[in-house]
Specification:
Helices cover 28% and strands 27% of the residues. It has helices spanning 33-46, 55-64, 83-86, 108-122, 187-196, 204-214, and strands spanning 88-99, 130-133, 138-143, 146-155, 160-165, 168-176, 181-185, 218-227.
Length: 230
């Protein structure tokens, strides 16, 4: 089972004040009180989407040391990932991709290179993008520092993840990556999500849509590193 998590070797001190979008889920009811600490920490790590926060050196150290989960399978639904593995704080590390069949999986490097160019243009980076999932089915995210929250449903057998938010239900997929987890979407859904959040930049959204046409059966999104407070 997919239960391991990334352990940061750097001692962290959460001393940065909340800025930008503020403490995530700060206005939720007491029913979410157990998750409140997780949601607040994401904003601190990312510096409220301002490009600051604690993330920089810590994430760089994790990636350079190759501290992944030791289990990679980027074929959607090919391996079972249980719900407990999804719960927690996840920080964006690099563009992610997944595929609907094993025969397509060899395209990962080429897809990531093209997606990286689009994300760079859009300003999506580790300092302003992350996700939090709690055990009660609530999620919240910052994408380029812009907040998105709601509830989620996760089918552990198929890897299908539905994010239910104020902008509608966003169909996504969860797969294992070398960093931790990848959350990916069909190209049209990823472009639609970014448009709904008012994220724009040149022809980058068109480039994402074109990737879907060039790599039929590919899914695009976010490779995520799990954060564990020491």
């Amino acid at each position: 089972m997919f239960r391991k998590s990334i352990i940061f070797t750097t001692v962290l001190a959460l001393s940065i004040s909340m800025t930008g979008c503020g403490s995530l889920l700060g206005n939720t009811s007491n029913n979410n009180s157990n998750a409140g600490g997780m949601f607040g920490v994401l904003s601190s790590i990312l510096g409220g989407g301002s490009g600051g926060g604690l993330l920089g050196n810590v994430l760089g150290s994790v990636i350079s040391n190759g501290m992944g989960l030791g289990f990679v399978d980027n074929v959607v639904g090919h391996s079972t990932i249980d719900k407990a593995a999804l719960e927690g704080i996840w920080i964006y590390a690099e563009p992610g991709c997944a595929f609907t069949s094993q025969s397509l999986a060899g395209s990962e490097l080429a897809v990531k290179q093209k997606l990286s160019s689009a994300f760079n243009t859009l300003g999506i980076k580790s300092e302003n993008t992350g996700f939090v999932f709690d055990q009660k089915g609530n999620f919240e995210a910052l994408i380029k520092g812009l907040p998105l929250k709601g509830t989620y449903n996760f089918d552990t057998n198929s890897g299908k993840l539905n994010l239910n938010s104020s902008i509608g239900t966003i169909p996504a997929y969860v797969t294992a990556s070398s960093k931790g987890l990848a959350i990916t979407l069909e190209s049209k859904n990823l472009a639609g999500l970014l448009q709904s959040l008012k994220i724009s930049g040149g022809n980058a959204l068109s480039a994402i849509n074109n990737l879907g046409n060039s790599y039929n059966g590919a899914r695009f999104g976010f490779d995520l590193v799990k954060y564990n407070k020491q």
